[in-house]
Amino acid sequence: MTKKCKSVANIGKHHWLKTKKGKAIHSKRMRDGFAVYMHSKITNPSKPQVALFNYIKKFYPTTILNYPYKSSTGKSYSLDVAIPELKTNFEYDCPFWHKSKNFGHGCEVKDMFRDEALQEDGWGVVRVSGLEELGALVGG
User: Strand ranges (DSSP E) for the chain?
Assistant: First the structure.
């Protein structure tokens, strides 16, 4: 019995990401705005994020969910709930991502850099941490 050779198709759709060159190309694409494009395709934001969006939209009809933003430094971000004309961003900090032992590491640092970049561009950032704070805000 002979062994079958692994074809590129069998390795996986994103096998090229495992190479050093592939990682560099992917990283450059994400920095050049592809991250904003990908975030604009998010069709399943969290329920608390949608609740925050719906609440704010009552007062500011131009509110945008998952707003794609490119800072003056050229870095791309997806803002949870944004009111662009007021330069105001609301971020919902889901406990799963921000408190989890597996995923929480580094979230606070990334958030801090994003907040600083937005503030340098004249944006205000409001962070909503957890369901209790969201419930108090939206009256739930």
Answer: 64-70, 76-83, 88-93, 124-129
User: How much is the pTM?
Assistant: 0.62
DSSP element (H, E) containing 48:
helix 47-59
Using one digit for the tens of pLDDT, what is the confidence trace for 35-92? Answer: 555 655 555 688 888 888 988 998 999 999 989 898 998 888 889 999 999 999 999 8
Residues 6+ apart with CB under 8 A from 52: 80, 81, 90, 92, 128, 134, 137, 138
Q: Specify the amino acid at residue 62.
A: T
Distance CA 140, CA 74 (A): 38
Interatomic CA distance for residues 128 and 90, integer angstroms: 7
C-alpha closest to that of 36 among 66, 65, 64: 66
Return the amino acid letter for 105.
Answer: H
Residues 87 and 58: their CA atoms lie apart, in Å, by 17
- What contacts 24+ positions apart, CB below 8 Å, involve 14-23? none
CA of 10: how far to CAs of 1, 7, 14, in Å?
Answer: 20, 5, 11
